[in-house]
Design brief:
The structure holds two protein chains of two kinds.
Chain A: E1 4-17, E2 20-33, E3 37-41, H1 48-55, E4 64-72, E5 75-76, H2 82-88, E6 93-96, H3 110-121, H4 126-139, H5 145-148, H6 158-170, E7 176-180, H7 188-204, E8 208-213, H8 216-219, E9 225-230, E10 233-239, H9 240-245, H10 250-258, E11 307-308, E12 316-317, H11 323-334
Parallel strand pairs in A: 3-8, 3-9, 6-7, 7-8
Antiparallel strand pairs in A: 1-2, 1-4, 4-5, 9-10, 10-12, 11-12
Chain B: E1 8-23, E2 28-44, E3 48-52, H1 59-66, E4 74-79, E5 82-83, H2 89-96, E6 99-102, H3 116-126, H4 132-145, H5 162-174, E7 180-184, H6 192-209, E8 212-217, H7 220-226, E9 229-234, E10 237-243, H8 244-249, H9 254-262, H10 268-273, H11 304-308, E11 314-315, E12 321-322, H12 332-336, E13 339-340
Parallel strand pairs in B: 3-8, 3-9, 6-7, 7-8
Antiparallel strand pairs in B: 1-2, 1-4, 4-5, 9-10, 10-12, 11-12, 11-13
The chains are: A alpha/beta, B alpha/beta.
Chain lengths: ~350, ~375
């Protein structure tokens, strides 16, 4: 049995705003073991980034309210002080942000920024911290790291900046690496390189990874388990193969069907999920996906619980439809033959 | 997807776009960025031409040059039989009505201080079309056409999501009923679910408005879905041009093969089984592009020949052109029939067509194919 690193129990996050209370995350639970990759998939506004930032303690604010627990090494990270949180943030849990263009400081050299991260958590002299920075840049595949360590961010290409961000996130040997849409701003070719790099570094550093993305294709070959989020809730959770080959939630079907696929003949039209995600201030009654779901019926007016409805244990979903009905009908959405009008 | 097989709407002939790098007090030109380097192709009426390549390959520069947002350094751009590369601002204005652009970033391409009504209506005003009242009505119709509601007329861009903003950008491009729309990465900033809505919308509009698209993107998965033909660019050069499906069945240029293998497949078993060709490093600098075939430093089939001689664009039949000394997925018979395509860059060595006798070509089936 692998070592349990992180346990998120019934996490909820609310923000008070001028327009009302935003229910960003509601009742999200998952566990992360050492050596595993967890994928969190959902559209913009599904709460996936807020979940990640809450684990990192980055959503703390007078207007935020938290519920549930984030347990790391036996401690609830939601309850510790800001000063204590600093020992975890970066040191135990590292994070890679989406946009490598804006998350590096343009007026500091790449090396200085990595050294700063190292020295924030460890007492080392400048020289050895710099040596570590060069070594890290080498590990993430930057050519000529001795020279490039003194470059400014603008001298790096998009892919290299993301590599530098990864080097920074790894600088203190974190046990958990959270990657928030690490490849969205990048070319497909570079995207493939970065995903492979993250998978390789996970083994080298013996850590665990939470990979957040809106594209199921990105996590298909590296994730062990996948959580699909919608409107702040987990709507499906399964081992990667089960999620792709036996998806239970119509929302997951929609996500799968939206991807233009090279491995299948080109469909006349792509499947698309009609409409847009609901406002998190006034959520729809019942199942949150009901207004956009082509299969909705009366029962959907009450929200289904996240529970196991199929033979495979651990495969959870939030849908009232019968398993046989779903298996018979989902191909319409995933195959991309029809469109939910 | 194409409605007819009419003549070329747009012809691009040996177009070059260099950006000078100036330095010193005298602002002397010290180097040039070879953004687009001798590219030729044509776009037929009613079709969609996909233009793909990595960042920095010159695809956006080419797109902007086509609609004359940038002046070409050399070469001809012929739109509906008329050369437009030298037209002045005044003569260009009526042409602008017929070619419009949709930009990549839906956040940066809409003026945050203008209301949606004037963003979409301004093109009509500039070209003095209709009265104030009829323009308003037209804008409201356009809003409905792109899937927004007429009530959005008085809103500001910040009140919309990324996908909705991109719809506004499309409505603005449609306002003047253009013939040609150059769409520069119109979906790459969007979530996959919204992306598919947008692709379907572009598809519908093409039929309804008889549009011709030049669709620029870096993702071959997206491009396949919309395109009739696909042009692959690398470091300012056109390296492969092919009917859409054929490019996926039978990529000839190793760069295309690598691009195809980078597209993620949402199927864990297939994704694990597939061999991914990871291209090492980034695209080299377009200031001093590599000699010979520009792809040779990153190509796994490269030989001495590739370093020295720039390959001509060879015609492999069925409108499939590729510039490569060691083509993939080609058999001996096809190789023997290869001719130099008229789109070949001037500097390429026309005598250096790929030959079977060299023994270095890769027979059909060796290259990685997706089926």
């Amino acid at each position: 049995m692998a070592e349990r690193l992180l346990e998120v129990k019934d996490l909820s996050v609310r923000f008070s705003t001028e327009d009302g209370v935003v229910q960003a995350v509601s009742g999200v639970s998952f566990e992360l073991d050492r050596g595993k990759v967890l994928g969190i998939v959902g559209e913009s506004g599904s709460g996936k980034s807020v979940t990640a930032m809450t684990i990192m303690g980055l959503t703390r604010d007078v207007n935020s309210r938290f519920g549930g627990e984030v347990v790391y090494q036996g401690r609830n990270l939601l309850e510790i002080s800001d000063v204590e949180m600093q020992n975890y943030r970066g040191n135990e849990i590292g994070m890679i942000f989406q946009d490598p263009m804006t998350s590096l400081n343009p007026v500091y050299r790449i090396g200085e920024q990595i050294v700063e991260a190292i020295q924030a958590h460890e007492r080392t002299d400048g020289k050895s911290a710099r040596r570590r920075a060069v070594e890290l840049l080498r590990q993430v595949g930057i050519p000529n790291p001795e020279r490039r360590v003194d470059d400014f961010p603008h001298q790096f290409s998009g892919g290299m900046r993301q590599r530098a961000m990864i080097a920074m996130a790894l600088s203190c040997n974190p046990s958990i690496l959270i990657a928030d849409e690490p490849t969205t701003a990048l070319d497909v070719t570079i995207q493939a390189q970065i995903v492979e790099l993250i998978a390789k570094l996970k083994d080298d550093f013996n850590s665990a990874v939470i990979m957040i993305t809106h594209d199921l294709g990105v996590v298909a070959d590296i994730a062990d388990e996948i959580i699909v989020m919608y409107a702040g809730r987990v709507v499906e959770r399964a081992a990667t193969r089960d999620l792709f080959y036996d998806p239970q939630m119509p929302y997951t079907w929609g996500l799968l069907g939206s991807i233009p696929r090279l491995d299948r003949p080109r469909p006349e039209r792509l499947h698309s999920i009609a409409g847009s995600p609901p406002s998190l201030i006034t959520l729809p009654q019942g199942c949150t996906f009901r207004p956009r779901c082509p299969h909705a019926f009366e029962k959907c007016e009450t929200e289904p619980a996240l529970e196991n409805r199929v033979e495979t244990p651990g495969h959870l979903d939030r849908c009232w439809l019968g398993v046989d009905y779903k298996r018979a009908h989902r191909a319409e959405s995933i195959g991309g033959e029809t469109e939910a009008a | 997807m194409s409605t007819n097989g009419g003549g070329p709407l747009l012809e691009v002939r040996h177009v070059k776009k260099y950006f000078p790098i100036r330095q010193g007090v005298l602002q002397r030109e010290v180097a040039r960025v070879h953004a687009v380097d001798d590219v030729s192709f044509e776009v037929r009426e009613g079709e969609t031409l996909g233009l793909v390549g990595e960042s920095g390959c010159g695809k956006s520069t080419l797109g902007r040059t086509i609609v004359r947002l940038l002046e070409p350094t050399e070469g001809e751009i012929i739109f509906r039989g008329r050369p437009i590369q030298k037209l002045g601002a005044r003569k260009l204005r009526p042409m602008r009505r017929e070619m419009q652009m949709v930009f990549q970033d839906p956040y940066a391409s809409l003026n945050p201080r203008k209301r949606v009504g004037s963003i979409i209506g301004d093109p009509l005003k500039i070209h003095s079309i209709g009265t104030k009242a009829s323009r308003k009505q037209q804008v409201e119709e356009l809003l409905e056409t792109v899937g927004l509601s007429p009530e959005h007329y008085n809103r500001f861009p910040h009140e919309f999501s990324g996908g909705q903003r991109q719809r506004i950008g499309i409505a603005r491009a449609l306002a003047l009923r253009p013939k040609l729309i150059v769409a520069d990465e119109p979906v790459s900033a969007l979530d996959v679910s919204i992306q598919s809505q947008m692709l379907n919308l572009l598809d519908d509009l093409q039929t309804d408005f008889q549009l011709t698209y030049v669709f620029i993107a870096h993702d071959l998965g997206v491009v396949r879905h919309v395109s009739d033909r696909i042009a692959v660019m690398y470091l300012g050069k056109l390296v492969e041009l092919s009917p859409a499906e054929e490019l996926y069945q039978r990529p000839i240029m190793p760069y295309t093969e690598a691009l195809l293998s980078a597209v993620p497949i949402p199927d864990p078993d297939l994704a694990r089984k597939r061999t991914r060709i990871v291209l090492e490093g980034d695209v080299p600098s377009p200031i001093n592009p590599p000699s010979g075939c520009r792809f040779h430093p990153r190509c796994r089939y490269a030989t001495e020949l590739c370093k020295e001689v720039e390959p001509p664009l060879a015609d492999y039949g069925n409108g499939h052109l590729a510039a490569c000394h060691h083509p993939l997925n080609v058999d001996a018979a096809a190789l023997a029939a290869v001719t130099v395509a008229p789109q070949t860059p001037v500097e390429a060595d026309e005598s250096a067509l790929p030959q079977d006798s060299s023994g270095e070509s890769h027979p059909a089936g060796e290259g990685q194919s997706l089926d």
